[in-house]
Every structure is written in C-alpha cells, then in structure tokens.
Amino acid sequence: DSQSSTLNDHNPTKFPEYPYIPHTPDMLSGVCFSGGGSRAFSSAIGQMRALHELGLLQEYDYISSVSGGSWATGLAVYATDIGLDSLLGK
After folding, report:
1. pLDDT digits (tens, 9 = 90+) for 37-89
2. Where are the alpha helices (DSSP H) in 12-82?
3. Which pTM value belongs to this model?
4. Helix 38-53 × helix 67-78 angle, to 10°
5. Which long-range contacts (CB under 8 A, 24 or more apart) does 77-86 make?
6. Distance (Å, whole) CA 2 – CA 10
C-alpha cells in the first residue's frame, strides 16, 4: 500500500525545508503534544505509539505538552516500570 511505502522510504532530504534547517551533530530536537482534554490524551497516545513503532520517539531530546497531551506524556515519562512497548500497546 502507498502509505506504508511512504513510511518505509522516509528520507528527510526530500522535504523542501531541508536545505534551510541547520544540521549539526549536537543538534537537539523535541516533540509537542497539544491540549484538549480526553481527545488530546487519545491523540497523543496514538501519535506516541506511531513515533515509537517507527523508532523515532526515542530520538527526541525534549517533550513538551499541555492539558490532555500532558496526561499521555506524563504516563510515558514516569511509567518506566512497564516500558513503552507495554504502555503504547506494541
């Protein structure tokens, strides 16, 4: 299917913004999750699950979130005894 081939062929150099982004070995990155109560919680869990399955969640240095997004990220950050695979349903 076309969506899975797009995910498997992920190459950031194909994005038009790529030449304008500074690339250094010590560059830090972060991910943000929005608020909105229980809908934001569900959305953030799904987004974290997808990032984790792609091996990208572990690449971020910082996580920022508000409201419902914070419910999800709080679980991911502090539920270390069960692990991300179990928490995110992998």
Report:
1. 999 999 999 999 999 888 888 888 899 999 999 999 998 888 878 888 888 88
2. 38-53, 67-78
3. 0.68
4. 40
5. 84/52, 84/57, 85/52
6. 12
